[in-house]
Amino acid sequence: MAVFQSLAEKLGSAFKKFRSKGKLTEADVKAGMREVKLALLEADVNYKVVKDFVKTVTERAVGAEVLESLMAEQQIIKIVNEELTSLMGGTVEKLTIAPKPPTVIMMVGLQGAGKTTHAAKIAGYFKKQGKRPLLVACDVYRPAAITQLQTVGAQLDIPVFTLGDKESPVKISKEALKFAEKNGNDMVFIDTAGRLQIDEKLMGELEDIRNEVDPTEVLLVVDAMTGQVAVEVADAFNKQVGITGVVLTKVDGDTRGGAALSVKYITGKPIKFVGTGEKLDTIEPFHPDRMASRILGMGDMLTLIEKAEQAFDEKKAAELEKKLMESSFTLDDYLEQFAQIRNMGSLDELAGMIPGVKPGQLADAKVDEKALAQTEAIIRSMTMKERRRPEILNYSRKVRIAKGSGTSVEAVNRLLKQFDQVNKMMKQLSSGKFGKKGRFNLPF
How many angstroms separate the Cα of 236 from the Cα of each of 51, 84, 113, 233, 267? Predict the structure, then answer.
């Protein structure tokens, strides 16, 4: 995640202080921890958080005997990893589901943090798990707020309850619960109004809604790019309204990461979700241990695997396996595999999850949309027979396909050569030549 790129680089530089040390002395630890302290402060982490964090790590490192199997640098990284994980909450905090439906989630926060979009994102996340969410439009002040919620709701095929902008938010939420119970919606997401800054009227209205609907969760949506300001906002909302968790948005942005590392310590409330992009499916449960690993350049293979699984269609995988076994893999299948990889996201985001690859190292390495569009255009310019039997493509056919796709015969030949190479490799894999057979996606 770009949110921790600068911090990861600075911590990496600080850890070099411990290289070639057989045993850590107190002076060694303090020298290295001074740089860790500066890295955290530059990342906009709250000063009190930094002070206590550095003190804890220093005490552990000075008092610890270096394990025989670990070098001094590795020992420090191990301690920092454990303390970062603890700082961000220790374990993943799942959304509480009410024993008797509906589960009511009240979304609160300042204007512009992404409340409306993230209410829809989280609703969509639970819809994929078999829930029947309902979105509730309680922002009756911001122009087009209701329309925005209806738009994202329609994109996710999630119903939106609204009484327009003339009724009070308290009445709208109350009526929405009745609607949910009547229509079998087991999760209700209340999109409340925000302000450009915290004020009495805003907090009073939120308290009234909370007292009326008794929500299962009150989730505060904060913008990660605002750093310590996000932590101050979280603290204020928690004291005045009482939040149960935080949704951190824009963690894919070029920011320093202070909010993620400070909010749990300051408010005592966990980060429950992080928004990782603009699309409506870019929402993830927050895993403190995985995030700590990514900050330290240790990767996040579990999230990478989960992303692959989300992009991976079991039914299509079974069909693909059968085609490979029968040697009937076509250019249409080839095109579909490209689309699945594109659905996983940018290579930079995925690279940050691979151990040893620094965040931002592949910032310019993205799935080439232009090349993908060209591949799609070439394949779609073929007849069904040509897609199934590319060996029949003679020069005149290739000229026709090139004209139809706006490309060249050279581009058509290049695609056919790539397809042939992948097809040969897949046949070897399906025959078990490279090991145990099993389901797979194409490795490109």
Answer: 22, 24, 15, 5, 9
